[in-house]
Amino acid sequence: MSSELDKLNYWEEVYKKEKENHEESNIELEEWFEENCSKIITWIENHFGEEKKKHVAVLDIGCGNGLFLHKLYKKGFLNLYGFDFSREAIELARKYFQKNDDNNIYVEVLDICNIEKDVHSNSTLRRKYNLLNDKGTFDIFFMKNKQNEYFTHISFFLQVNTLFCITTCNACKEELLEIVTYFNKKNNSTIKLSLLDEIIYETITFAGKKGQIITTLIFKCLFLFIQGHIDKDYPYISSTKNESKNEGERESESKNERENANQNKGKSENKNERENANQNEGKSESKYEGQSASEDAGENANQNEGKSESKNEGENSGKNGREK
C-alpha cells in the first residue's frame, strides 16, 4: 500500500507546521488517537496504582510532539521517555515540555530501524521499562506488510514483566494476535508476549459486522518455561534445556561413579584389613601351637628320659643283686 506516512520528509513538514502554529497562534498540539488516549492513560493509572507512579518507567515509541508523555506527567508519572525519527517532532516536544515545566521527560531523535545500532550501552534510552506504548508506529509497518520487522526492532526493549501497549487503526484484534503469535514462534528469545488485557472502545456496525475503529491490546513479556509448550512450538529452547540437563546428568553420573569408587575402595580396604587381621591371627595361633607342641615334645622327652633312667637303675640294681 502506497503511503506517505513512512516518509521522514512528510512528518518533518507536519511537525514544523504544528510548531509554527503553536508558537505564533498558541494553537494546542494535536495527538494521534487523541479521542481515545484518555482510556489508555486511565488503564495505565489503574494498573500501576498511585504508589508506583513515581517509579514506573514508560517509553513512548514514536512519541511525536510528546503530548502523551505530557499527560502522563500531569497524572504523576515521573520516569518518562520517548523517541521519534522526526527532528522537528522532538524539538517541538522539548519546547512544549520546557514551557510546561515537564522536567522528568526525556526524548531524543531515533529511527526505530536503527535501535540496535544507536541505543548503545551509555544511551539514556538503554534501561528497564515497565511499559512500552505505541499508538501509530506499528501501523506504518503494518501498511507496508513489514509488521514482523517492527517486532524484531521492538524486541530490543522487551524484558521480563515489561508491558507492551499497542494501539492500531489498521489491524483488528485477531490480526494483531496472529502477528504476535508468529513473532513468539520466530524470535530467537525465551521472552514471549502474552495477552494481558484489551481496552474496549465504542463499536460500529459495517456490512452486518460489529467492530471497533481502533484496537488497543496490552501484552506482558513472560519468560517461557512451560516444558510442554517448549517441546511443541519452541524446539530450540527444548534442545538447549536438554543439553543443560544432559550436562547435569553427566555430572551426577560422574559424582555417583566417584562415590561408588570411594565406597568400593573403602570396602576393599576393609576386606584387606580383615584378611590381614585373620592372617596375623592365624600366624599367632600357629606360633602358639608351635610353641605348645615344642613344650609338649620337651615334656614327653623328659618323661621318656626319666622312665629310661628309672628302668636302667632297676636293671642295674637287679644285676648287682644276682652278682652278690
UniProtKB/TrEMBL annotation:
Residues 236-324 are annotated as: Disordered. InterPro entries: Efm4/METTL10, Methyltranfer_dom, SAM-dependent_MTases_sf. One of its GO terms (molecular function) is protein-lysine N-methyltransferase activity. It is found in: Cytoplasm. The keyword Cytoplasm applies. Keywords: Cytoplasm, Methyltransferase, S-adenosyl-L-methionine, Transferase. The keyword Methyltransferase applies. GO terms for cellular component: cytoplasm. It comes from the Eukaryota. Belongs to the class I-like SAM-binding methyltransferase superfamily. EFM4 family. S-adenosyl-L-methionine-dependent protein-lysine N-methyltransferase that methylates elongation factor 1-alpha. This is Protein-lysine N-methyltransferase POWCR01_070018600. It comes from Plasmodium ovale.
